[in-house]
Every structure is written in structure tokens, then in C-alpha cells.
């Protein structure tokens, strides 16, 4: 968007201090990124949720680093004045530090992201610290972590009891100490998310984590019902139903093609006089 200046991690921390909420939305390609930037979203997340909503997988686990680089690069072309965060996909930051940094390098140099997002808490703090020390901003992600869905027993709300609340707080603080510039809290009880937000000096961004976070993030396809079979989610508010409009539009197109209503006169181009004589020979009649 002309005249817009991308946020940076210093400005985001200042927004937390000033009580100004951060509005983040996912994007997976050039047009969605361009539209989100024009709508003045603060940040774009190229989430590995693209596995579910774009690539047709049942989870985020099959998403590869090549997938993330490809889609991040497309988003970067569409939103050149918006802060872009790219997900580190499954098992790309649990090996050696050297391997992790190579994977981060690809998202930054080839994908043109401004930051990376990583799922996990204290157990990934060393990797987060190494990435930050290498000069790359890191956004943490705790609570429901989709890459670990098989381990945590499904898509369950986190922070329902005191023990789990304490674990989440400790994970958030570990990420802050490691240098993360913010933390996504997914499917966390509102009370716990609010308490974590107050304890941290870095912004929290909620998704299904209530009203006390410093910002919110939602999936592009959920906000717009951009899917053939939309499944309602309690923590999501949809603001438009483009899925229905797309289906209706394509149906009308197919109907008009079948009925020879499209293309109509206004959609065709006329040749200059005499062209058919030169094509078929003067006096000849085209036969089919």
C-alpha cells in the first residue's frame, strides 16, 4: 500500500506499552497478501496452516520448508510494506543449531520474510536464542501447537487448570528470555492468556485466547469463509462469505457457457472487412 510503512519489533513493543492492539492475519499468496495490506493489517503470517486451507492436508505436519519458502515469497511480493512472519514447519528446528539456521536462512533469503514463528516453549528456547543472535526476529507460539497435535491429544483448549497455567507462563517467559519479540497464544483460556500478557514485556497475539492479549490473529480463510465446506469455530468471527459468492459466480459461468449465453456480442472482437476473403478466397463460402 503506497505510503504505508511496515511495523518493526521495536514499534510493536511500544504498541503494547501504549495499549494499541496488533491486528494480524494469515496470507498464503500474492492476491491475499495484497488485499490484506490494502486493508491495513499490521502483520501477515504465512502460516503452515496453508497445509489445511490451501494444500488440502488434514494437518500442518506434511508442510515442507519448500512449501513455506514458495508461499512466503509470493506473499512478500504482494505486501511489500507489511511485516511478514513465516512459520518454521514441522521438524525444521529440532535438529542441530546449524541445520536450524540453514532452514531459517532459506525463509529469510529465499522467502523474504522479516521474521520466523516457532511452536514450543522452554524446550526450544536454545534454538530461539541462536536464531535471535543470528539477527532474525522470532515469534513464539504456545498453547495449542498444531505441529504437536498428535502428542497433546488433539485440538484441546490449554490452561484449564493451575498446573497447565503455570507451564504456559513458564514457557512464555522462557521464550521472552531467549529473545522472542512476541508470543502467539492459541486456544488458551482467557484468564491465563490475560495473566501471561501482563507478565511479559513483549506482545502476546491471541487466537482463541480471549480479550486480554495485545493483539489477535485469525486465518484468512476463516475470516472470509473462503472454503467449500466451512466448519464453524467458536473463537472465529467471519466478516464476509466469499466462498458462497465464488461458488455462485462459477456456477453462473458454467450455466452461461452451456447455454451459449457467454461469450456475448460485447465479449468478441471483429475482424476488418475483407479478412475472410483473404482467408478463404474471394467468393468461397466457409463450410463446417
From TrEMBL:
Which keywords fit this entry according to its UniProt record?
Cytoplasm, Magnesium, Metal-binding, Pantothenate biosynthesis, Transferase
Q: Taking the first listed entry, what is the main subcellular location of this protein, grouped into a coarse class?
A: cytoplasm
What broad class of enzyme is this?
Answer: transferase
- Keyword Ligase: yes or no? no
Which sequence ranges are marked TM in the entry? none
Which Pfam family would be a valid example here?
Pantoate_transf
Which positions bind Mg(2+)? 48, 87, 119
Please provide, alphabetically and separated by semicolons, the GO molecular function terms listed in this UniProt record.
3-methyl-2-oxobutanoate hydroxymethyltransferase activity
The record describes how the cofactor is bound as:
Binds 1 Mg(2+) ion per subunit.
Q: What's the Enzyme Commission number for this chain?
A: 2.1.2.11
- Tell me the cofactors it needs: Mg(2+)
Domain of life, per UniProt, equals Bacteria
User: What are the binding positions for 3-methyl-2-oxobutanoate in this chain?
Assistant: 48-49, 87, 117
Q: Which reaction does it catalyse?
A: (6R)-5,10-methylene-5,6,7,8-tetrahydrofolate + 3-methyl-2-oxobutanoate + H2O = 2-dehydropantoate + (6S)-5,6,7,8-tetrahydrofolate
User: According to its UniProt record, where is this protein located?
Assistant: Cytoplasm
Instruction: Give the pathway listed in the UniProt entry for this protein.
Output: Cofactor biosynthesis; (R)-pantothenate biosynthesis; (R)-pantoate from 3-methyl-2-oxobutanoate: step 1/2
**Catalytic residues in the record:** 186
The cross-references to NCBIfam families, in alphabetical order and at most eight, read: panB, PRK00311.1
Biological role: Catalyzes the reversible reaction in which hydroxymethyl group from 5,10-methylenetetrahydrofolate is transferred onto alpha-ketoisovalerate to form ketopantoate.
State the similarity comment: Belongs to the PanB family.
Which HAMAP family does this entry report, sorted A to Z? PanB
Q: What does the subunit section of this Swiss-Prot or TrEMBL entry state?
A: Homodecamer; pentamer of dimers.
Q: Which PANTHER family match?
A: 3-METHYL-2-OXOBUTANOATE HYDROXYMETHYLTRANSFERASE
The name on file for this protein is 3-methyl-2-oxobutanoate hydroxymethyltransferase
User: Which species expresses this protein natively?
Assistant: Paenibacillus puldeungensis
Amino acid at each position: 500500500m503506497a505510503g504505508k510503512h511496515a511495523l518493526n519489533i521495536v514499534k510493536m513493543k511500544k504498541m503494547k506499552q501504549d495499549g494499541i492492539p496488533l491486528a494480524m492475519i494469515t496470507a498464503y499468496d500474492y492476491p491475499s497478501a495484497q488485499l490484506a495490506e490494502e486493508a491495513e493489517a499490521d502483520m501477515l503470517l504465512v502460516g503452515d496452516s496453508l497445509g489445511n486451507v490451501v494444500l488440502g492436508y488434514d494437518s500442518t505436519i506434511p508442510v515442507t520448508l519448500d512449501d513455506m519458502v514458495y508461499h512466503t515469497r509470493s506473499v512478500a511480493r504482494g505486501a511489500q510494506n507489511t511485516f511478514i512472519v513465516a512459520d518454521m514447519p514441522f521438524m525444521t528446528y529440532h535438529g542441530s543449531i546449524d541445520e536450524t539456521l540453514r532452514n531459517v536462512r532459506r525463509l529469510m533469503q529465499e522467502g523474504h520474510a522479516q521474521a520466523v514463528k516457532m511452536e514450543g516453549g522452554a524446550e526450544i528456547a536454545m534454538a530461539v536464542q541462536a536464531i535471535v543472535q543470528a539477527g532474525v526476529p522470532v515469534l513464539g507460539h504456545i498453547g495449542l501447537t498444531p505441529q504437536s497435535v498428535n502428542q497433546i491429544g488433539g485440538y484441546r483448549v490449554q490452561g484449564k487448570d493451575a498446573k497447565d497455567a503455570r507451564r504456559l507462563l513458564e514457557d512464555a517467559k522462557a521464550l521472552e528470555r531467549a529473545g522472542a519479540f512476541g508470543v502467539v497464544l492459541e486456544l488458551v483460556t482467557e484468564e491465563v492468556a490475560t495473566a501471561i500478557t501482563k507478565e511479559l514485556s513483549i506482545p502476546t497475539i491471541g487466537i482463541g485466547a480471549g480479550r486480554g492479549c495485545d493483539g489477535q490473529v485469525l486465518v484468512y480463510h476463516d475470516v472470509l469463509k473462503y472454503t467449500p465446506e466451512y466448519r464453524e469455530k467458536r473463537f472465529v468471527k467471519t466478516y464476509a462469505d466469499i466462498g458462497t459468492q465464488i461458488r455462485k459466480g462459477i456456477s453462473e459461468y458454467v450455466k452461461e457457457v452451456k447455454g451459449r449465453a457467454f461469450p456475448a456480442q460485447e465479449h468478441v472482437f471483429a475482424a476488418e472487412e475483407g479478412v475472410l476473403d483473404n482467408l478463404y478466397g474471394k467468393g468461397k463460402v466457409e463450410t463446417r
